[in-house]
Structure formats: structure tokens, C-alpha cells
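As a point of orientation, let us examine one representative protein, giving the amino acid sequence and C-alpha cells.
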Amino acid sequence: MAQPNPDPVLLLGAHVSTQGGVTTAPERARAIGATALQLFTKTPNQWREPVLDEATGRAFRDEMARAAIRVAVSHDSYLINLASPDPELSARSVASFIAELRRCELLGLPYVVSHPGNYFDDRAQGLARNAANYARCLDEVPGQVMVLLETTAGTGTALGATFEELAELRARMPKAIQRRVGVCADTCHLYAAGYDLLNEYDAVWDRFEAIIGLEHLRCLHLNDSKTPFNSHRDRHELIAEGSLGPKPFKRIMTDPRLAHTIKIIETPKGDDMVTLDTKMLKRLRTYARSSAKRH
């Protein structure tokens, strides 16, 4: 079967499976026409921490080069909650996130995307705990790996649904740590949280620039939404087939401010884990190329 022809300039890809080991991920990304990928370095709904050795790290980097994947980012475990008021869960989360950072260093991953925690009790105290624990983990694992705080949909007591909250979370960390903290913006989450990318696209990014700074936006999760604007529900849909529709994605793919930002889809996979991802990446590349032709 002929492989998709990716644009080498775009850092565009998908979250791919690591079934069979992390070294299988680059080939899966190549098969869908990606130049970037996101992966879990461990099973995301289990506490068990895999032990990766130097040989695995070398093999992963070799596979990245062979598959011509330009960048890979990790996503941390769903169980981690660095804002939790529960001492046991907090300690377990810190240990797990430190292990995640170490695996990223071993594999040569520059970024780990992380959901800010759920505070459960008091928002201000939750922010303080969250910031302190991120700082503790980054201090424990010196190196180049950056944490990308992901925008959230505003469900329940989850932190990170507003730009102000993300900015405060970052600002609460020591200056020496802040250089290793950026942001990953998810289009579905933004729309669900009340940022109208459909009707106020420029205003959303202008606000991001004013409050956080676009230089801190290192990754975009491109997902349409199954739910309406300001729903505060995290339900991903195929690109251009949900309540956002094609317009915001066409803007993103042609926005010079976002040209060098890693773009990752987390849209529904379907039955074979390949067909829909290939279709979505092709659709996004078409948006980018159609604009280039007009200009």
C-alpha cells in the first residue's frame, strides 16, 4: 500500500500506540504520514512503572531516524494528580511523574504533556500544591525535558481551564524551573472551556499571548468537539466533523504564529488505528497547502 506523502515542514502527527514496546511507535507514525508523534511511555491507567534501559533508548532514537519522525512527545499517566490534597495519592503521583521524566530523558523526548491536577478541596491550595509538586519533580530530574501544561475543559475541580490559571501555575514555580514549563493547548478543551475558536479565533490567541505568551505554546492538540461551545465536557470528535467544524482548523494550519508548533491529533481511531488518523492528517495538510496555493 502506498504511504501518505507528508509535508516535511509540518510537525504534524497523532497519538500512536506503543503496543509491543515504545520502539514500535515511530513506524506507526510513519504509516499514517506523520512527522511528529505523541505516545505513552507506560500504561496510562496503571501505576506500574516500566524499566527502560539504555539499549531501548538507542533503539527508539534509531527508529525515529529511520521513520523520519522529527519529534516525539510523551503524555503522562491519567492516574497522576499533582494537586491532590490526599498525601498518599500526592506522593504516588510525584513518584510516577519523576519516573515519567526519567523515561523521557532516556528516550530523548523533549516534552511531556501533563494535565494539571484536580484540587478537590480549595482551588488556591490546589494550585499551590500543583506548582510545588511540578517544581519538585523537575528539580529531581535535571535535564532538558519540558513539562507542557495542557489546557482543560473545565470539568469539576480540574485546574487549567483558563489561561490565567495556567499562567499562575507556572508563575508559582521557581524562576529556574519556569524555563522547563510550557503549554499544550487542546482545541476541544479550549472550546469546551469557553474560548470561542470558531467565532473569535484571533481574540482567543491574542488573549493567550497577553496572559501566557505564545512563545510558551509548544504543542497543539487538534481535536474537534462532540459537545457544544462552553459545555465543559471533554469529548473529542474527528477534525471538521464536530461543533468546531473546519474553519478553526483551516486557520490553525495557516496561522504563521503557529507554524512551528507541534500539532498532534487525538481524534477517534476507528477499528484499525490507521485509516482515520491517515485521513485526518491528510485533511489538515490539505488545509495548509490550499492556503499556500492561494498565496
User: Anything to note?
Assistant: The CA atoms of residues 30 and 67 lie 6 Å apart. The first strand starts at residue 12 and ends at 15. The chain has one domain: 12-294. The domain at 12-294 is CATH 3.20.20.150 (TIM Barrel).
